[in-house]
């Protein structure tokens, strides 16, 4: 730029937070336990999850719990996330359309 | 100059041109040794004798702020030297606070035979502390630093009074310093203090910045380009930014009375508290002038309100960008455009205010395209999307008044908006006919079969407004007509073989088929009046208006938010 020395210092426009490194939960070798199915409220997400629930029960014989977000336009409420994490060994989220 | 008699002058220490330190105020009797000066005049010596028997002589400081290239300083400083010679022995310590470079100060002092010490304030730090506006400035203070007399420029009466006050304080007769033959004028205005020279002012600002600004400093290498650095670090929207230097950010912050570390809002999607300082940094990058900052701050606050659902607006695969509509006196005060090309380019305030908000969302909130921002297509308004309402061409209530604010308030209104689309109607001669055109066009927002799902803004240009006014129509009549025009029997809006998109019966509360009796019920485009906002913008000529569609309406999606702009 060739500008004056004072222009050589600029300010950080970001939040300056250091990202937290999160490790995914350990993967299970076999499909056993409780599977949570989360419908985010997009059209026909329920159609997909109904089919998935049937398959899981018939073929894998696992217990299935169904959850629904209040609206797809917002993040899942923290209580819902906690409940799924507490009660389920697996979770499948149906995105949409 | 802020100082008046009775106030305490700021303490400082400066070196003279020989490098010797001079503290101010000096402890009484400690410096100068004036009472013992061998060349003290007989009057002063006699006076000193009477006092010296019991206590050290009363100390008195005279500071004269000056610079070499000032005609008034040329006039005044030799007279100050006479004062020094007359009262130094009695205890007056005269010191010049020289704003010029040391070489210029030395040359000036030699040329005028200045007998008193010159302190080097070429960095103007002390001048800035004293808020010196004009040179010369005279400050007479006692040993505690309390101001006894002060004035700026050359005012003969003030100088005489200052000399008399000094002599009185020292307990000596007032010396006669100026003779009629000297031709000294009664008054001559001073020159501007060097603290206002652009390079000095900037250096002072940078220095202040070091104590005020908390953001991490990024050093740009001598061979690097700050603009390229911001691209490389992913901190821009794809256009070059203005590098946020300390000086620029300090000037930006000066436009608000708010504390730089005050938290303005918590910014989605990462839910990060953003300070006034961080908003100012991004506003600088966007190209804002300082006077736009209050508008940007209000925009950030509005966008981060729960009702606006910024997380969803950023994360959705749909189109929305935060549109800012500005109302009230601030529009004209900062030179916003509400007329020709109001939704287009060419106006700095519109362009950069609209750009600053997405930069805050990106850099502070973490809403970057391809990451949390999953928008499928987007639109150009995601760079910048801001205009002012043309209240002068609006015969009805302006938007902010309709939304509960006073006409003299300045506000921002935020809307999760798709790109504007054009509606042409050059033929209508009645409001009803015009609304037929507007209604048919607006029916296609989001999807022609999706009624009740979306809200929209109708931006009426002045010629279309006049068509409505001529028939005595207001916003209520326009809304009613548009609802009538857009209304379709429900059967046309349901998903069917010809078009699978449409209102799902489940949304209407029917588990299976919609009952036959319901199929011919007319459904207008908008669920309520609130879903259709009407504003006025654009130039006098042109029978065109614009429609700006929204995103998911109501509590499930994003709701329009209006916020008052806090101006000083």
* Strand segment tally of chain B: 24
User: In total, how many domains does the architecture of chain B comprise?
Assistant: 2
Number of DSSP helical runs of chain A: 2
Head-to-tail CA distance between termini of chain B: 23 Å
Topology:
The complex is a heterodimer of chains A (97) and B (568).
Chain A: E1 9-11, E2 34-39, H1 45-60, E3 63-68, H2 78-87, E4 90-94
Parallel strand pairs in A: 2-3, 2-4
Chain B: E1 12-15, E2 21-24, H1 42-52, E3 60-66, H2 71-87, E4 92-98, H3 102-111, E5 117-120, H4 125-129, E6 134-135, E7 137-142, E8 147-152, E9 154-155, H5 156-170, E10 187-188, E11 191-192, H6 198-212, E12 217-219, H7 226-232, H8 246-253, E13 263-267, E14 272-275, H9 276-286, H10 293-303, H11 310-315, E15 321-327, H12 330-333, H13 348-363, E16 386-388, H14 399-402, E17 411-417, E18 420-424, H15 431-442, E19 454-460, H16 462-470, H17 475-486, E20 488-489, H18 490-493, E21 522-523, E22 532-536, E23 544-552, E24 561-564
Parallel strand pairs in B: 3-4, 4-5, 15-16, 19-22
Antiparallel strand pairs in B: 1-2, 3-7, 6-11, 7-8, 9-10, 13-14, 15-17, 17-24, 18-23, 19-23, 20-21
Helix pairs in contact in B: 6-8, 8-9, 9-10, 9-13, 10-13, 15-17
Structure description:
The complex is a heterodimer of chains A (97) and B (568). In chain A, 27% of the residues lie in helices and 21% in strands. Chain A contains 2 helices and 4 strands, in the order ββαβαβ. In chain A, strands 3-2-4 form a 3-stranded parallel beta sheet, sandwiched between helices. In chain A, helix 1 (45-60) links the parallel strand 2 and strand 3. The radius of gyration of chain A is 22 Å and the shape is elongated. The radius of gyration of chain B is 35 Å and the shape is elongated. Chain B contains 18 helices and 24 strands. The relative contact order of chain B is 0.09. In chain B, helix 2 (71-87) links the parallel strand 3 (60-66) and strand 4. Chain B is 31% helix and 19% strand. Chain B starts with 11 loop residues before the first strand and ends with a strand. In chain B, helix 8 packs across helix 9 and helix 9 packs across helix 13. Strand 1 of chain A pairs antiparallel with strand 12 of chain B, so a sheet runs across the interface.
């Amino acid at each position: 730029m060739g500008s004056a020395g004072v222009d050589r210092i600029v300010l950080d426009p970001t939040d300056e937070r250091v990202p937290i490194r999160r490790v995914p939960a350990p993967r299970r070798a076999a499909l056993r336990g409780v599977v949570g199915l989360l419908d985010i409220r997009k059209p026909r997400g329920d159609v997909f999850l109904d089919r998935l629930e049937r398959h899981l029960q018939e073929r894998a014989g696992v217990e299935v719990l169904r959850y629904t977000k209040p609206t797809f336009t917002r993040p899942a409420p923290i209580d819902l996330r906690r409940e799924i994490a507490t009660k389920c060994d697996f979770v499948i989220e149906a995105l949409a359309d | 100059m802020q100082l008046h008699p009775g106030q305490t002058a700021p303490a400082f220490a400066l070196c003279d041109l020989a490098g010797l330190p001079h503290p101010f105020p000096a402890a009484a009797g400690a410096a100068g040794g004036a009472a013992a000066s061998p060349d003290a005049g007989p009057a002063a010596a006699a006076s000193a004798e009477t006092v010296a028997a019991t206590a050290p002589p009363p100390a008195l400081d005279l500071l004269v702020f000056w610079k070499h290239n000032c005609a008034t300083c040329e006039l005044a400083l030799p007279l100050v030297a006479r004062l020094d010679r007359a009262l130094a022995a009695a205890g007056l310590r005269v010191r010049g606070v020289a704003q010029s470079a040391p070489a210029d100060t030395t040359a000036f002092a030699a040329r005028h035979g200045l007998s008193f010490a010159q302190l080097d304030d070429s960095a103007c730090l002390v001048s800035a502390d004293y808020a010196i506006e004009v040179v010369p400035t005279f400050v007479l203070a006692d040993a505690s630093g309390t101001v006894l007399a002060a004035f700026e420029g050359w005012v003969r009466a003030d100088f005489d009074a200052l000399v008399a006050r000094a002599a009185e304080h020292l307990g000596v007769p007032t010396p006669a310093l100026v003779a009629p033959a000297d031709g000294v004028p009664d008054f001559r205005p001073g020159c501007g203090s060097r603290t206002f020279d652009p390079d000095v002012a900037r250096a002072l600002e940078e220095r202040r910045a070091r104590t005020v600004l908390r953001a991490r400093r990024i050093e740009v290498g001598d061979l690097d380009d700050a603009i390229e650095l911001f691209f490389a670090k992913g901190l821009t929207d794809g256009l070059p930014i203005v590098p946020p230097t300390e000086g620029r950010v300090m000037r930006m912050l000066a436009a608000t009375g708010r504390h730089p570390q005050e938290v303005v809002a918590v910014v989605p999607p990462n839910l990060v508290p953003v300070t006034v300082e961080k908003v100012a940094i991004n506003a600088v990058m966007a190209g804002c002038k300082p006077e736009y900052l209050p508008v940007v701050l209000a925009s950030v606050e509005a966008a981060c309100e729960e009702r606006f659902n910024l997380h969803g607006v950023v994360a959705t695969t749909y189109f929305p960008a935060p549109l800012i509509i500005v109302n009230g006196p601030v529009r004209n005060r900062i030179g916003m455009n509400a007329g020709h090309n109001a939704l287009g380019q060419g106006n700095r305030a519109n362009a950069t205010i609209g750009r600053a908000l997405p930069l805050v969302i990106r850099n502070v909130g973490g809403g970057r395209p391809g990451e949390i921002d999953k928008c499928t297509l987007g639109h150009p308004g995601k760079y910048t999307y801001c205009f002012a309402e043309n209240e002068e061409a609006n015969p009805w209530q302006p938007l902010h008044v309709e939304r509960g604010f006073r006409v003299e308030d300045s506000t921002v209104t935020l809307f999760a908006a798709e790109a504007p689309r054009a509606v042409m109607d050059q033929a209508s001669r009645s409001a009803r006919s015009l609304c037929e055109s507007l209604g048919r066009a607006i029916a296609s927002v989001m999807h022609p079969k999706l009624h009740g799902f979306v809200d929209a803004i109708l931006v009426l240009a002045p010629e279309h407004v006049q068509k409505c006014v001529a028939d005595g129509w207001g916003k209520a009549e326009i809304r009613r007509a548009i609802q009538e025009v857009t209304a379709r029997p429900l059967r046309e809006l349901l998903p069917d073989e010809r078009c699978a998109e449409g209102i799902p019966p489940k949304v209407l509360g029917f588990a299976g088929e919609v009952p036959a009796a319901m199929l011919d019920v007319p459904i207008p485009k908008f669920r309520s009046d609130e879903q259709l906002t009407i504003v006025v913008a654009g130039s006098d000529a042109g029978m065109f208006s614009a429609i700006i569609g929204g995103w998911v309406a109501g509590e499930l999606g994003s709701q329009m938010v209006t916020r008052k702009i806090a101006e000083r």
